[in-house]
Amino acid sequence: MAEAILSVRNLRKSYGALTVTDGVSLDLCAGEIHALIGPNGAGKTTLIHQIAGTVKQDGGTIAFLGRDIGGLGVAERARLGLGRSFQISSLAPEFSALRNVMLAVQSQQGSSFHAFRPVMRDPSLTEPALNMLERVGLAGRAHVTAAELSHGERRRLEIAIALALCPRAFLFDEPMAGMGPEGSKSLTGFLNDLRQEAPILLVEHDMDAVFALADRVSVLVYGRVIASGSVSEIRNNAEVRRAYFGEHI
Amino acid sequence: MKRMRAETPINFLLAGLLLLVPLAALALEEPFYITLATRMAILALAAVGLNLALGLGGLVSFGHAAFFGIGGYTAGILSTHASNAQPLMTWPIEIGGSDNMLVIWPVAVVLSGLVALVTGAISLRTSGVYFIMITLAFAQMIYYFATSWPAYGGEDGLSLGLRNAFPGINTALPLNFFLICYALLIAALYLFARIRDSRFGTALQAARQNQVRLAAVGISPFPIRLAAFVLSAMMTGLAGSLFADLNRFVSPSMLSWQMSGELIVLVILGGTGRLFGPVAGAMLFVLFEFILGGFTERWQLFLGLILLGVVLFARGGLLGLLAGKVRHG
Predict the structure, then answer these.
(1) B328: contact with A, CB 8 A cutoff
(2) Touching check for A73 and chain B: CB below 8 Å?
(3) Which chain A residues are within 8 Å of B205, Cβ to Cβ?
(4) B38: in domain
(5) Does B328 map to a domain?
(6) Contacts of B206 in chain A (CB under 8 A)
(7) Where are the beta strands (DSSP E) in A40-173?
(8) Which of A83, A138, A205, B141 is deepest in the core (most CB within 10 A)?
(9) Is A93 near chain B, with CB under 8 Å?
């Protein structure tokens, strides 16, 4: 197996008596899509929050590119190359789609303390941003404010922002949520190619997408990884079927 | 963007109107109106500063009077020492006073900025109501310090014998002094516009809209906000030194929480975050003060009603009413 880019070991998090992350270990290797599935309330999003730095873990380690990032802030982790999308779209609502992506481009280029040059007339910002919008099919909506975009468009804008960071790993939290079959299908194709740029840790409820995309699947139940393996191993795992899929498979 | 902003013609109109008032006053031989216009320009400048923090950054500072007052006391104290020829300090180096605006302004700006750096670094660890309260608390500390500082007048304030000088311009002439204030206001507006459209301004506005998003793209909100707070204080401090020169008097009232409140009112009245919002706000405010103040001492009651109307029915302030919603690129 290739060397892990992101490596989580024995991660623990509780809120009072409620343990939401219970000794989770997982790896994300170059070129792969690692899907994280589990019933609602299993602690998938909390796990993503801890990796991204929005929530502080109680114990365990998070290593990224061979470096312990468990003590770093959100912005520092993003600068190191963790590109994330949010379960519920988190954008600058008054900015156009383009300027939302430009924010990521300017961060990627370094300092945000230039206070004199107008960003909208700076092709080193607008061109890469427009490129990213084109990749997710939003180029035609570049000048629409994020607040005025449709739900599906906002989901795609989230991805475009993550792309603009040129990350070394993607954390996608339910990118397909609420997208409809057409949107899910095109996004599935898109993610399928994207893994070549950087590996993806994918939290997703859309099982068709997960089974089509994932190189590896980890199943999270009550904050614990109960199984981890290839798609076929997970499909045939008795414990997973009992805990998660119920009678559906 | 290629397309002109809807508010651009209105901005030019406001700038022209403010310039026209003193010229008309001169023609009509009513010098008092020049003072009124100067007051508008200075308050507008102070509010442009606040607008940077409040409008762009969403930082509701209820303590900007601190910087306004620091600017005012800088002008007052330096000019007092210049006129009585006593040094301001003798150790470790001897520093004397000055009645030159070109010396007073940078001192006022730097002092305001330094105080903002310290108070901002502490205040910005909080947000929302706590931020409002902590900025108020810092301003009140400086207010009480000034009231209990007998060397510079304490509660009674400090009179400036003569208006401070500007090389080559006779500042005693009201029109000249107005033009100085007006030029500084235009410069501050230009700076505000450049900042708003820059990378820094983009990050600052993003911090207001969604700081989780800003951090997720790798930009820490704290240093961005702190820099904005300091810049904002510097502009307000500069306005304060002009205000002391306008009145030839500085007192703790410049540092009071009412003053902080007035600055917020100016920004909201004109349109929060709009380039010319503070200008519109200051013009309206001084006009109300003058017209309504002519009828009744309780003119602020009517101002309160107008403010209530703006907050309830015209969130974008006067400029929002005239030019519609803000369009970002």
Answers:
(1) yes
(2) yes
(3) 92, 94-95
(4) yes
(5) no
(6) 92, 95, 103
(7) 59-64, 67-68, 82-85, 169-173
(8) A83
(9) yes
**Domain of A245, in residue numbers:** 1-81+168-249
Interchain CB contact of A110 with B (< 8 Å): no
Based on the structure, what is the number of domains in chain B? 1
- Show Cβ contacts of residue B283 under 8 Å, excluding neighbours closer than 6 positions: B14, B17, B18, B40, B44
Q: Tens of pLDDT along chain A (249 residues)?
A: 457 899 999 999 999 889 999 999 999 999 999 999 988 888 999 999 999 999 999 999 999 999 999 999 999 999 999 999 998 889 999 999 999 999 999 999 988 888 888 999 999 999 999 999 999 999 999 999 999 999 989 999 999 999 999 999 999 999 888 888 888 888 899 999 999 999 999 999 888 889 999 999 999 988 999 889 998 888 888 888 777 666 454
- Last-in-domain residue among A98, A132, A166: A166
Same domain, A132 and A231: no
Nearest CA-CA partner of A151 in A210, A87, A201? A87
Q: Which structural domain range is residue B207 located in?
A: 8-323
CB B319 within 8 A of CB B55: no
A114 in contact with B, Cβ within 8 Å: yes
What ipTM does the predicted assembly reach?
A: 0.90
Give chain B's count of helices (H) and strands (E): 13, 2
- For residues B218 and A106, the answer to whether their CB atoms sit within 8 Å is no
Instruction: Name the residue of chain B whose CA is nearest to A75's CA.
Output: B218
CATH for A65: 3.40.50.300
Chains A and B form CB pairs within 8 A to the count of 115
